[in-house]
Amino acid sequence: xxxxxxxxxxxxxxxxxxxxxxxxxxxxxxxxxxxxxxxxxxxxxxxxxxxxxxxxxxxxxxxxxxxxxxxxxxx
Length: 75
Fold this sequence. Notes:
75 residues, mainly alpha, 48% helix
């Protein structure tokens, strides 16, 4: 059985998966830094558990002030 990857919802309830998110990775990096103070260039960030970071990333498509939200067709 194939495992399902978590997805997120963008503006208008559109389901956004990892391919769409990763296609805008530079925006994800900028949004995480600006909105949550997460620096993906800091090695300490990568020593932390993955699930909390994944959760933050999956909130970005529905966060009205995020660059990713706008790139995916948000307001």
